[in-house]
């Protein structure tokens, strides 16, 4: 129910970004083809595999949080922590195409990105210093890795890149907060 609720609340927007990114990054052989695949509403093999793995990993990690009796606080923290890097990527990477969701959203001011990171950090405090530092480090590494991949594959970021960033950051945060 926790996983289904988190998906329903966002309308599966971030899952769609993850699937589109997987299809485009591994289904296309140049920037233009990758961007065209990412814009296509159909899902391909790479997208299905990425979604299936994301759902399975999150299901298992949410189950671990439930068993430990920390489900609510883990879900609150991962919800905030997984979204904070999106603003950072929007500041760091230029839009990969001249139109689209990411280009239309613009670049958040530095204060907004910092505020998002601060709120995310605050949600980690109840988990203690060790898990908070681990979660912050894993989320930062996941976002940095995805950002470097996006720069190499398409020269910047799109809404799909941002959605995929949220997904990998959520998995990283869940892994850190359920590690015991």
User: Can you count the helices?
Assistant: 10
Anisotropy-based shape: globular
SSE-based structural type:
mainly alpha
Distance between the termini: 23 Å
The largest sheet is:
none
Name the helicity range.
Answer: over 70%
Provide mean pLDDT, rounded.
96
Question: Which ranges are low-confidence, i.e. pLDDT below 50, for 5 or more consecutive residues?
Answer: none
User: What is the C-alpha radius of gyration, as a whole number of Å?
Assistant: 16 Å
Give the SSE string. HHHHHHHHHH
Strand content: under 5%
* Overall strand count: 0
Molecular structure report:
Helix content is about 80%, strand content about 0%. It is built from 10 helices and no strands. The protein has helices at about 1-10, 15-25, 30-40, 45-70, 70-80, 85-90, 100-105, 110-125, 130-155, 160-180. α5 packs antiparallel against α10 (about 160-180) and α9 (about 130-155) runs antiparallel to α10 (about 160-180). It starts with a helix and ends with a helix. The model has no long low-confidence stretch (mean pLDDT about 95).
Characteristics:
mainly alpha, globular, 79% helix, 180 residues
């Amino acid at each position: 129910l926790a996983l289904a609720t988190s998906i329903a609340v966002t309308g599966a927007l971030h899952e769609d970004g993850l699937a589109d990114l997987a299809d485009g990054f591994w289904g296309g052989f140049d920037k233009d083809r990758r961007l065209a695949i990412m814009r296509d509403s159909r899902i391909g093999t790479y997208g299905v595999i990425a979604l299936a793995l994301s759902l399975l990993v999150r299901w298992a990690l949410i189950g671990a949080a439930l068993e430990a009796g920390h489900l609510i606080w883990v879900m609150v923290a991962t919800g905030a922590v997984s979204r904070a890097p999106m603003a950072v990527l929007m500041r760091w990477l230029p839009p990969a195409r001249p139109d689209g969701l990411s280009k239309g959203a613009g670049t958040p001011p530095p204060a907004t990105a910092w505020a998002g990171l601060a709120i995310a950090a605050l949600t980690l405090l109840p988990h203690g210093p060790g898990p908070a530092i681990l979660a912050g480090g894993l989320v930062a590494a996941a976002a940095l890795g995805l950002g470097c991949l996006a720069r190499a594959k398409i020269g910047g970021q799109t809404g799909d890149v941002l959605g995929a960033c949220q997904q990998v950051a959520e998995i990283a945060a869940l892994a850190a907060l359920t590690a015991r």
